[in-house]
Amino acid sequence: MIELNDYLILSGLLFTIGLVGVLRRKNLLMLFFATEVMLNAANIAFAATSHYYNDLSGQMFAFFIIAVAASEVAVGLGLLIVLYKRHGTLDLDNLASMKG
Amino acid sequence: MFEPINISFTSLNMITLAPMLIAIAGGLIILVIDLIKAELHKSLYVMLTILILFIDFGSVLGLNLNERGFFDVMLIDGIAIVSQLLILAASMLFIPLALTSKRFHEYSYPEFFALFLFMIAGFQFMVATDNLILIFVGIETASLSLYTLIALHNRNNSYEAAIKYFTMGALSAGLYAMGSAVVYALTGSVELYQIADILQSRMAEPGIMIAILGGSVLLLSAFAFKLSLFPFHTWAPDVYEGASAPLAGYMSVVPKIAAFVVAMRIFGMYIDLGIEWVRIAILVLAVTTMTLANIMALVQEDVKRMLAYSSISHAGFVMAALALDTTKGNTGIFLYYGLFMFTNLGAFTMLWISRHKNRVFHERYDHPYEKFAGLIKIMPMAAVIMALFMLSLAGVPPFSVFWGKIYIMSAAIDAGYVWLAIIMGLNSAIAAYYYLKLIVYMFLMKPEENDGTVTYNLTKPLITIVGIAVAATIGSVFIMQPLISYIYYMVSASGY
Amino acid sequence: MEKFVYIALFAPFVSSIFAALFGMSPKKTFVGVIASLLLATSFLASALLAMFVYQTGGTIHVTMMDWIGAGDLSIPFGFVVDQISVTMMTVVTLVSTVVHIYSIGYMDHDKSFNRFFSYLSAFVFSMMVLVMSDNFAGLFIGWEGVGVCSWLLIGFWYHKEDVSPEENPSISPSWAANEAFIVNRIADLAMLVGIFVLYWNTGSLQYDVVFANLPYLNQTVLTTAAIALFIGAMGKSAQFPLHTWLTDAMEGPTPVSALIHAATMVTAGVFLVIRANPLYSMPEVGEVSYFIAALGTFVAFFAASMALVNRDLKRIIAYSTLSQLGYMFAAAGLGAYWIALFHLAAHAFFKALLFLGAGNVMHAMDDELDIFKMGGLKKSMRWTYIYMGVASLALAGIPPLAGFFSKDAIIETAFNEGTIVLWAILVVTAGMTAFYSFRQVFLTFEGDERYKEFGIHPHEMYKYVLVAMSPLALLAVIAGFFQGGFQTFITSGDVMPNYAMSEHTHHLVWILGSIVLAFAVGGVLLARYKYASGLKREMKCENSFIYQLLKNQYYVPQFYAEFISKPYAMISEKMWKTVDMKIIDITVDGIAKFIYSSGDDTRKMQTGNLSNYLNWMSFGLVALLIVAAISSVIG
Amino acid sequence: MYEQIAFYLFSVLIIGLFLVTVLTKNVLYSMTSLAAGMVLIAGIFFTLGADFLGVVQLIVYVGAIMALYAFAMMFFDVTKDVKENNTNGSLIFLLGGLTALMFVIIMSAPIMSENIQALYPPMAGVTNPQAVGMVLFTKYLVPFEVAAVMLLVAMIAGIILAGKKMDQSLTTEDDVIVEIDILEEDEK
Amino acid sequence: MDNILSVLVFFPAVAGLLGFVVDKNSIRVYGISVATVEMLLAVWLWMSFDGTNAGMQFVESIPLVPDFGISYYLGVDGISIFIVIMAALMTLLGMIGMSVEKDIKNMIISLLFLEMTMIGVFVSLDAIIFYLFWELSLVPMLYIIGAWGGPLRIYASIKFFLYTFTGSLIMLVGMLFMAHLYHGVSDGIWSFSITDWYMMVLPVNYQIWLFLAFFIGFAIKVPMFPFHTWLPYAHGQAPTIGSVILAAVLLKMGTYGFVRFSLPLFPDASVMMIEPIMVISIIMIIYAAMVAYAQEDIKQVIAYSSVSHMGVIVLGTFAMNAEAISGSIFLMLSHGIVSGALFMLVGVIYDRRHTKLMSEFGGLASVMPKYAVIFGIMLMASVGLPLTIGFVGEFLVLLGFYKVSAIGAILAGSTIVLGAVYMLTLYKRTFFGPVTNDENKKLFDLNGREMVSLVPLVIIVIWLGVYPKPILTPIDNSVKAMLSFMEDKARTPEAKERIIVSSITKEAK
Question: Does pLDDT of B395 surpass 80?
């Protein structure tokens, strides 16, 4: 029988995968992919909990997370476009003029 | 099938939504005006924004205390009102900084002002609810606007800042979502008051503590990012440096207030539940933050970047008050930011006034210390005023930040954390050095080649803003009593 | 009579202020004249007071105003004229007046003439405060006041350069002045301690109250007070080991030496012991008193021995002063306070005369002081020769001059008290005194005229100066005859216990007197034999260890220089350069630098690279998670 | 049983696909695997009975968001392999490993509780989208509207950031030059 | 005029603000006029002061933040009034004697603000207001040292500021804790009023910790060994006027703090701390005197001598008897006058030769006799010659402390010897001997301006040395009142025994 914990562990693992992606990605576009993974991980947890508690709040949360993800993509890509126009690259190693 | 749901309109208590709706409507109005007639001068939008915020402010004042609205999603308690008032006041004070004598990119967009208003609406939603979903959406609305506003300054550094902020913000959003998921899994609710009740009943269950703490850690990490606590603070200096001075100053106050309100709701709940671990974790984060940010600020070459570190340090200072979870400590948070706001406004306005379009004094920095060398000779008034703000930030009485500082230190002592008060004191001493450094440059150094450029950006509105900041910074002792009694009443009325 | 008290006290003060007004102007003779007149007024007032006290036997006590009042302490400016103080007042004002007049002549070529009178009168004022005060604090005012005036006057020729100690043992007037002041300060500290002890145990500093309370005090307190006050006295009276400053003080102008370093100030120590005689008479402090006597005796001998070989005219007299102070302490220590006071007075007259005579010689010899370079001066300086001869005779204790009576009484006392060792030393010292006094006189005035090879043309002092000196000469001759009267007078009040020889001593008085006289005459004759005909230097003797030892003052100054001054300077330097700058300051700066450099280290985490930032964030997350997990497992 | 199979199948596939997403050097692979993973997540939603969420996941995520990414990818011209110099792989491994471990530990805690009363249970006999609608437009109407504002913000942001006006910076250019430009435009 | 204290505090500040408008060439006269008026006000205060009343007078109390217990609460008693007058006097004379030409306007304005803060510190009876003025006084001083100082001026000024600031923040924690305790015992009323705090009897262990917190703040300001190293730098680099004010008034804030806060608030802790403080003070006295002897710079000698003398003041404060505490307060005044005058005198020679090294001088007495005379008088006052102002305080302190510890008093008494050593060496090296340096031969003596600033000090030095009663009596009254209050308040029998209002009545008991 699949327990809530199983879904939550899946969610946790996916979140970790997202986190690893965030950590190791140097290409900003692909880094954004990783953040999507993290949000999806949370979605799974919400949906699973919602299912097991028979409560709709979790699905609501997941729904809004999707909305947030969509908005973030719009803004993030906007920023990437501006950056790309200026620098011609999306490598975040080139993005270190401010430090110290 | 199913019956239509009947809900009486009055039970929705729509008035609780009024402030946010005013801000959103204002944003839309600005967008519409732009559609109807383009190329209008920024002063129009600035004034419109102020007026909208003014109405907003009025509507917040008109709210009744401790009401819920809209299916209990909206929560208008004391801290919601106080924080909204602070947010709106700060916004009204910062937005006139758009009226510079030189043209800067962002202010040529009417959308800038619309986004600004949407951002404020986002903050207002954040603070006026205890629903994790609305908090999340509010945070994101505000943050996404803020990222854009930063980028709109349209310089390489501002993109860099925006992207850094955005990326880390996305990670933080993930953490928040995940944390909420864990909390939801534990309690089956996304509303804090219910979460508190259910957690209370489940506290004793074996093996559950790790999940409770895990959830709190995820949320703490998310808010540590927002509040720029070590080691989640790394974005702050770069973002402040990349953003324009008004926005940097704004960022060091308003998002922090909003985040503190939410943090107060969430972590206050944990601490009230008797989970000491959260308190200790916050204290450790707060102490490391104020200390490390201070020592990093010591070695900065740029005033704005120094102020960025300093505001991190101030945030750590206030975070420590949050960990106390006493009414006095929570009062102190608002009091501190209320007072800090004016000084910070003044300091960043002075930077903004002295801002050049291109970097004259340093290849990287806009406001290197050298720029202010010998200011007392060139512009005595400007130097004195700037020194005033620096002294205030350093916590020299009778300037505004001092009063906040002693109130929070007193709260720490009342809560039995004398060591914390001492650390706060020592940190203030370290901090004094870098504020002093600017004073030393201004008063004790010989002027560099400097053709009166310190007032490069000066206009009457900016003078007015500086004047307000000076008056509030110096006269803060006289507004302390009403502030304290009002905030204390509000905070204690909301049960914090 | 009160107004006479004030006149006596403040006339010198007015004189000082008056002279000070002209302090920066060129020489004005009238300054000296007016100062002298004011001093004479003071003397007259003192004399009238003495008459009054003598005739009525009463004392005058005035309180001018409050000075310090704090807590229970209340110190007024109070003055008392009783037998002791009136004696001192008379002696001081008399000698001062003479010295003032003398100085008009002696200082006539000095461009700081006016300033000199200002200092000199200020000194007299301080001395008057010292002797007249009715409490210990007032005494201390005078005590310090004379110290400062002494400092000013020793360093009067401040513009002289420092030279090496080989060339001039006093290095320079300013050096000698500082030495005098500082050494005195060490003693003053002890004196303050004595005052504190008395205050905390009697609740007052008034003589009468303090003395009235003495019987109720325990031995520790009494001993501490007695010792502390005596150490104070030792400084001012230059008793061993605080004696070096006195000889160096001879750098000052000679009238100063006469007044301050012979007649008055140096006797302040003796005066203190006499004044505090109720304390020193307490049986509990008998050992202290005996120690005073022993130390006095030792110093008498010790100083005399150094005088034997010295070649410096003034230093010889200074040593003799030291030696005579030793006598006085011996008497006071043995309880014969009135004898000590009597010797003090007599000594003041003849020693001042001696110094003034030496001043005449210096004046004549272009400030040359080496008696080996003099000789045969009697031709050109007859009166001076007579004065100095008389004074030396008095000093040597040749009857019927003053010194004989007073010194003989002291030696008798030593015998009377059964302290035979002290007696013997004092007798021997009397002989040595006679020898060195006349060695000096003969080398200066008799024999070949060695000064000629240095191209000096000596001349006699001004007439009026010589006249002015005559009262001293007269007193040096006749003062001894007043011994009995003095005894009656001084012991008539209740301020001074009488001291009389026992029957036994009384019987032996002639024998004792003869022994002393024999030594004295022997000394004079020996000096005449060796030096009257001229200077015959015996190198073998001069190179002997003892001669060198004496010549180098027992190496005490060198000891002080090597083991106190230099180490002090060195430690000070170390304290500053090492402890202060290196340890404390570096620690403070080190903390600041550490904080600053840790800022430099910490800012490295701010690499600017987003990946690192994200790493930091997840590090924070992981760390918090781990800590949370651990603490939740632990509980 | 069926549920179990679906769970494990989906789990393995999602994990695998997302691992590809974060580990591959090819943007195209990365994006494709991300999209595929999201589709499978929609599958999980369906198995959990969250039909509406599953559909939204498919439409918004796979449809809209991935399409946006695809366009961006084309714009950025990163179809080739991406060079990423990871200097501290071991640190990432460590952090990732520890995070995974911690999540597993936390999520294995007895989180599920029978005592919890559902606050917003779906009404009996109502399909999931209907139930969602009921809650969304009552209780969550405010967040829903705020989300609308958020999307508006994102839209505005996307438009102005990507717009042409951003190519020229008033912030860094001297005002004089800008004014001359405007004058020239007027002449035209 | 019951609100004369407010006028005293804010008159210079208002004048300073208005000073921005005054023309540069007239600003010196403006400054001197303002300082004169302030001085006259201070004298008026003295005239209307009732010396027989030991309590607080001219009290003004306006609640500022009632919810947090902060009020604008001023008052003077015998302990503080004379320091206030001295502050006004030294500002006036310092301004007259000031030779600064560069940025004179800024200097005058800074001085006027500094005067406000100085007077404010001594009349505040609310801890927060006290702290406010205390901290605020650092700012103008920082500017004065930093802008008109010597080559190391910036280092010196920052060191001065940060050191003091750090210490006072610890003190602030102590104050907040006091308020917290008061809040606990007073039914939830907040108060930072010192007089309210006086009424509170604290447990001994609290007293000790609070004592230490206050101690750090005061000790750094005094400055006590080993926290003194900022002082030589500050003095060495500061312009003359800066050193004058610093030595005369700012240092007194620390010792005043001991009297106003530490003793009456923590009587038991103060008694327990007598021995440690005695050791520190004696180290300070002897060590600083030795270091002063080793200095090559005239100003540094006087700077270290300040440390040494402050040691005596601290020692007297903790003697716990009326003689010593009155003496120590009197010594604050006398040290203020004397060291202020000495720094002015060093300034005189520095203006002429632009060096302060002793080796550059020698024989100045011949060239500048008036200067030498005044210097000599001040020197004698500094070494504590009777009938000068320096003696009274030193005598009373040593006398009083003898009651506490004979050995301590003797060791501390070495100040009169060691003080003489370094001061006389200084005087000898500078004023005596032949004029060796040609540059010194053409030096001119004190001019009229310098005489005007120095002669009043000479008069005061002698007047108060001869007749200290008008000042000592009010001080003594207040001190006795404070001590008897402390005695009543003390909890431990040891403290009750060692606090001595009057040894006569004590024994009678």
Answer: yes
CA angle at residue D178 from D176 to D179, to 5 degrees? 65
3-class SS string, C384-407: HHHHHHHHHHHHHCCCCCHHHHHH
**How deeply is E90 buried, as exposed, middle or buried, from its count of CB atoms within 10 A (0-12, 13-18, 19+)?**
buried
Question: What is the structure's pLDDT at D180?
Answer: 45
**HSE-up of C7 (CA within 13 Å, CB side)?**
18
Query: Which residue from B209, B210, B212, B132 is spatially nearest to B173, judged by alpha carbons?
Result: B132
- The Cα D165–Cα D180 span in angstroms is 17
- The domain locations on chain D are 1-84, 86-126, 140-188
- Kindly report the nearest CA distance between residue E484 and chain C, in angstroms: 12
Interchain contact D/E (3 or more Cβ pairs less than 8 Å): no
Q: Which tokens belong to C287?
A: 């050992």
- State the CB neighbour count (10 A cutoff) for residue C504: 10
Predicted pLDDT at D174: 67
The 3 state secondary structure assigned to E445-474 is CCCHHHHHHHHHHHHHHHHHHHCCHHHHHH
Distance CA E93, CA E87 (A): 10
Render pLDDT for C302-351 as a digit per residue (tens, 0 to 9): 998 888 888 888 888 889 888 999 989 998 888 888 888 888 888 888 88
Q: E strand or H helix at E490, and its extent?
A: none
Place of tokens 């021997």: C428
Q: Which residues of E touch B444 (CB under 8 A)?
A: 143, 146-147, 153-154, 157
Per-residue pLDDT at A31 exceeds 60? yes
User: Structure tokens of B180?
Assistant: 């909420």
Compute the residue count for chain D: 188
Q: How close, in Å, is residue A68 to chain B by CA atoms?
A: 7
Question: CA nearest C426: which of C464, C455, C397?
Answer: C397
| φ, ψ (nearest 5 deg) of residue C367 | 65, 20
Q: In this prediction, what percent of chain E has a pLDDT beyond 90?
A: 68
Residue ranges and CATH numbers for the domains of chain A are 4-88 (1.10.287.3510)
State the ipTM, two decimals. 0.92
Contacts (Cβ under 8 Å, ≥6 apart) of E191 = E69, E71, E179, E182, E183, E197
Q: What is the mean pLDDT of residues C196-211?
A: 90
- Residues E468-478 pLDDT 10s: 999 999 999 99
How does pLDDT run across B328-355, given as a tens digit for each residue?
A: 999 999 999 999 999 999 999 998 888 8
Phi, psi of C78 (to 5 degrees): -115, 145
CA–CA separation, B255 and B232 (whole Å): 15
Mean pLDDT value of segment C614-623: 91
Nearest-angstrom CA–CA distance, B136 and B140: 6
Residues 80-99 of D with CB under 8 A from C: 88, 91-92, 95, 98-99
Q: Which residue of E has its CA nearest to C190?
A: E410
Is pLDDT above 90 for B82? yes
| pLDDT beneath 70: ranges in chain E | 1, 508-509
Closest residue in D to B108 (Cα–Cα):
D170
CB B49 within 8 Å of CB B116: yes
Identify all chain C residues contacting E226, using CB atoms and an 8 Å cutoff. 584
Q: What does the pLDDT read at residue E509?
A: 62
Task: Supply the DSSP symbol for C81.
Answer: E
As a whole number of angstroms, the distance between CA C272 and CA C142 comes to 12
| pLDDT of B286 higher than 90 | yes
Structure tokens at C156: 């009067």
Mean pLDDT of chain C: 87
CB of B465 closer than 8 Å to CB of B97: yes
φ/ψ of residue D137, rounded to 5: -95, 5
